[in-house]
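User: Predict the complex.
Assistant: Input components as received:
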Amino acid sequence: MELLFSLVTGVLSASGIYLLLRGRTFSIIVGLVLLSYAVNLFLFSTGGLHTHSAAVIGESAIPADPLPQALVLTAIVIGFAMTAFIVILAIRTRAELGNDHVDGKQGEEGDTR
Amino acid sequence: MSLLWIPLLTLAGTLVPLFTASRGRVICTTATIIAPLAALSIVLSHLPTLLSGEVVTQHWNWMPLLGLDLALRLDGLTLLFALLILGIGSQIITYAGYYLASDEKDGRFFSFMMLFMTAMLGIVMADNLLLMWLFWELTSVASFLLIGFWGHLSDARRGARMALTVTGAGGLALLAGILLIGNEVGSFAMSDVLVAGDQLRAAPHYPLIMALVLLGAFTKSAQFPFHFWLPHAMAAPTPVSAYLHSATMVKAGIFLLARLHPALGDTSLWAVSLTLAGLATLVYGAWFALLERDLKGILAFSTVSHLGLIVLLLGLDTPLSIVAALFHILNHALFKATLFMSVGIIDHETGTRDIRRLGGLWSLMPITGTLTLMAGAAMAGFPPFNGFLSKEMLLTKALATELFGGLGSIIPLLVLLGATLSVAYSLRLVHGVFFAKSIDNSPAEQVLHPHDPPKGMYLPGLVLAFLCLLVGLLPMTLAAPLINSASLAVQGVNNPVFTFALWHGLNLPLMMSITAIAGGALLLREHKRLGLLANILPSQNAKVVFEKLITRIVKAALWVTLRLENGSLQRYQALLLLSALAMTALGLSNVSSLTGSAGIQPIDGLVILGAAVMMLGAIGSALAHRWRLVSLLMLSVVGLTVSLTFIRFSAPDLALTQLSVEVASMILMILALFFLPQRPPLWVSSRRIMRDVLLAGSLGLIIASLNYALLTREVASISDFFLAESVPGGGGTNVVNVILVDFRGFDTLGEITVLTLAGLATYKLLNRLRLFKPSGNVEGIRWSRHRYPLILDVVAQIILPIALLVSFYIFLRGHNQPGGGFIAGLITAIALLLQYIARGYEWTSQRLKVSFPFISVLGLAIAVSTGLGSWLFGYPFLTSSFGYFDIPLIGKIELATAMLFDLGVYLAVVGATLMILVNLGSVTTAHRPTLQTTEQSASKEGSK
């Protein structure tokens, strides 16, 4: 189980990083979201992987570690704020510069519009 | 009176000239001088205590963890310097009031002077090495501003830059030395460092520490080979030179040597380094002073030479030579400040500082002539002036030294050479300006009719010149107590008993003095031949060498910068990731075994399926990145599976949050696709792809290994506290929610602030957006005519009340069951968003007339005021309270202030989410291509 879980975080972050290294804004956004999934899973897993033990008093005999959960919950929401911001930033950049390359210029990849 | 007032007064004094500058020169000068005089009187009020050898210290904690304290001390050494800084400083401010032209920015000038004065006081008063260093750097900055005061002259700019570069670089070396000292001693407090001399001298790093400290001192005090900045600093207005390059700034290095003498001195390494540097500087400076034609240049090189003399005296390192060094600090400051001021007067009156064009001014300017003569005699070391006394002491000490063993006689010989040259250039200065005939008599001089300046301009110089004479005549009364207490501060128990006297009998030093005077006179007569000799000797213009060096450094820096920073974000990311990879790999290689001691749980089929879906989705979205929509859909698969993962591993709150955020961000990103290019970008080179795959793959491997190592180890958690206190302390059974709104409420407050700010920022970014307006897809097919599908419309309307009810329920139960403000807020936002999607922006906003920024800010305000409310009851910010209430018909329910806080969270989330998404959506509506506006109005009609 542990091996599989860490494999997932590894693959998610590798894909995210690969996308981060692309030259178009949208790939970067997707990459960042993927990377944030991976980071959230990683952070969440620091509390250990428990089954049927939600951190609600009285519901489960041995409640899971609630602290990483609280941290990740805020991380998810902040991640949304960040995604929203860069999405709008990407749109604005496209509108101002006429292309969606991260350097704001026609890269070697060419541009269609 | 608190010691802090001394630097505070001068610091406040930096503002005074700025406010009084408009009132005219006289008022500005008078007002400026008040602060130094007041500070001087505070120093003088401590005089009796200090002369008796006591030390006054005051101490405030500043950053105790860094060892940086606001600690001030006043001892004999500080007293000597403080008197010079404040006493000569106030004389020079008076002088500058007359020196500066009427249209000059005097407010700024005086303000810089006061800033410099504050910095110097800080150096000499600091009782903490780091604090001292701070002021040390401040003097570099202030002197940069002062030297470059006439910024329209390129010489001034160059001189200022050179001084800043050299002294700034030295300052960095000094910082390194100080850090090493602090590391060795365990404290930066002066009192600790000064008594740790034995420990420091025995330390393995001692040579390095000493070299770094000396580098700082030598650059500041213009010791060979770092002397070259000082002559170029003469581009400054003359009052600046008189202040910075006679009494203060260049003495800072010497102060440092004296101050740290108990900690670092008394080793042969120290003595040899100082002696060699001092000797070289002494002779070198004196030789060039003799050749110089510019009056200020003569003084600059002579200052270099005299600084060398002081360093040499400190290097001889006997109790009496240190006394002589301290004495010469005082003497040099007195006569050099006078000379600079009189050179300023001559420049002012004749319009030139070239000694070849000057001459015969004695009859025209008798007062200026008198004070120049007096100070010049002191500089040459003629009796009965103060310079004679310290020079005799130097000659005595040079004869007595045993430093170089058999080669020891070289020291007195070189000192004699220096003294002879010193007599020669002093004579040349006085003779050339006042008595000799001008070699090149320009007509301009006849027009100007030079005469003695107004009183205010020559009085400061005259005061100092008479002090030179008085100290020479009455050394035991005027100077000895001061020097004694300064020496006591430097040498402690080794402090010798000494007497200053003009007449020591007919001895060897006196003979040498007479030889020097005779030799100096001879050199002056043969000055023309000296010039020929100088032409034969190789000479390098320091400025050219320095500028070349700087150009080379700039070029090298540019080269490196262009390599690293080529304007490509991808390059930066790759570099950053590469260094992250290197560092984590290094850390991971120190772990002995990846698998930890905790057991491994078995795998079940469902988990394998989920993992496979996530990995395939992630890889798929990376592979399909050129087709944006496909990539996005793959991403959403991963996101949904992540929320399932949270459910599987007992985190229902996370699952709910992830699920609702997923919906909101997918809507957002699909909207964004409308504005981004539709065609896939071209392929890039396979080399680039290989590089990125390799980089991403290895980082992924590292992250997976880290995660695995972490998961298989027992981790001690601080969560037991939260689990135990959740019900009794927070009044809720859902620990995650209680942490969010209660234990860590402050974090949550910060987070919803960020959320609101992000919303407001996007609001701003979308303002006046010029958009590309695709009227159809890539193939040229127009967008669908049915913009608002009927089924979606109907479903959305049915769902809205249910969704609102659900979100209300989730909000209410959040404290005890999975749920809470975040999740409820997202559900509400999505339910409302669905209306916008189904019926369009105009239709919905006509019916939902609320301002989302307002809701978001309102939520923030509720959260903050809930926190502030606890202040009313005398509790810290965000303290929560709760109670159980019996309400008729409903029964017993629990109400907590945390719930009010959660309401704030709810509103902030709803407001921010809708602010972002609805705004983006509204932009698409406003910018619809004109072709479709008819449809739009038609559909609007239809919907009514």
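The radius of gyration of chain B is 40 Å.
Let me know if you want any component modeled separately.
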